Fold this sequence. Notes:
With 113 residues, the chain is mostly beta strands. The chain has strands at 4-7, 10-13, 18-24, 34-39, 46-51, 58-60, 68-73, 78-83, 92-98, 102-103, 107-112. A hairpin with a 6-residue loop joins β4 (34-39) and β5 (46-51). The radius of gyration is 13 Å and the shape is globular. The relative contact order is 0.33. The model has no long low-confidence stretch (mean pLDDT 94).
Amino acid sequence: QVQLVESGGGLVQAGGSLRLSCAASRRTFSAYAMGWFRQAPGRVREFVAGISWSGGGTHYADSMKGRFTISRDNAKNTVYLQMNSLKPEDTAVYYCNAAYTYWGKGTLVTVSS
């Protein structure tokens, strides 16, 4: 079992930036591919970004490319999501995922226009 705790959400104006963090409970964190997903009100959960176990491979949903950056620090059991040039449509609860199996409880990001 892996416990994931997200942090860093909040209210930001359009064009601003936020950095989300996800701390994992297990030292085997470094063995897992990690990802960020989001769910806006009334919409299905969607993929945002993913990163390989080593951090050497990343991929993004098309609408996030060039604005969001996923990274990880295996020594700290933490994965990050740097979000720049935020738009009101980025408003959602952002969830951390490990190995496409384990989920955090999410952190709310609200972008005001």
